[in-house]
Amino acid sequence: MDFHGCDANRNLAFLSHVSAGVSGLRPYQPGMPIEELQRRLGIADAVKLASNENPLGASPKVATALARAVATNLALYPDDGAFRLKRMLAERHGVTPESITLCNGSNTLLDLYARVFLGPDRAAMYSQYAFAVYPIVTAAQNAPAVVIPALPPDHPQMPYGDNLEEFAAHLREDVALIFLASPNNPTGTWVSAEAFERFMARVPARTLVVLDEAYHEFQAPRLRIDSAALLLRYPNLAVTRTFSKAFGLAGLRVGYGVSHPRVADLLGRVRQPFNNGTLALVAAQASLDDVAHIEATVANNDVERERMTQHLRALGLQVLPSQANFVTLDLGRDAAPVHQALLESGVIVRPMKSYGLLQCLRVSIGLPSHNRRFLDALKRALER
Ligand SMILES: *Cc1c(COP(=O)(O)O)cnc(C)c1O
User: I want to staple 242 with a disulfide (CB 3.0 to 4.6 A). Which of 24, 255, 343, 378 is the partner?
Assistant: First the structure.
């Protein structure tokens, strides 16, 4: 049904009830799907390096497990308690299943944290270049946001990175929740384990820290925050993880949180029943045990991220330090025409305009052939 010019537009007075937070929101801008580029420009062999998906796909064990699961009775609701997957995750994190919250993607989990802990007099804090979902879930609760300026673009170690000193300095009374991703999207930057530990020691007990570890698997082990140990020391710390990135299950939507059981209990009160489908649960279980697939994923990422970084720097471009499965580059000029030229070459990357980074592009690390195609297209685009 087309609403343009029809009678239904005559009185939209009910819209006056929409909250200020929602009225002011701009929706999340996802990476362009391959099909859309094909539709728009008729390009048959497009490469998508725009949403940090796993270029190796999911573990082959997933297809086997799904084939078996499809033959079961999909008319039945899934296991709402996700008994098996929760037990596997609890074991992996050294906690009891009561500490695990499963969600339809970890973005949904971020929304649950916001719904439980934020409101007009309970603020969220996050960094200037934090993941776009944090401001969205915050505004949806009509909660104030304390946005902490990022480290400067010419910072010697971590340009555009999160400034934990400034976070700590602004922990006013009404800050209920801190969202922090490490490694962070869209920058790829991270906070050091030492800095994060010092930070946790300074966060008052009244403030919950949500540490978003969506890119955990891609980070060098020696640089990782020991979130398992910190969770035991700080009940006001919660960690989120996802099956969308290293596990290659973005299409099925599974994420989870590890937290104090009291926090998990509160999240469980507001989540929707049956929020993970049967197939999603089965796939997550099957992928969790395939250590070799994660190793192959990380190995490709390590080699290709380094190679990509070297090539981009050789072109004279600033590449932000990254411990994730993407790199963000500063072109030193408006990125929009370059983004458009890349699209016309059949390469989809992510413009950073919505983050206020007009000169930056974020590029997911793909297979060697994908990355070569991007680099070739970029060279041509820069020469135009
Ligand atoms: C991709 C991403 C997520 C995960 O999203 P899902 O909903 O689990 O697919 C969460 N946080 C950050 C910072 C991300 O980049």
Answer: 255
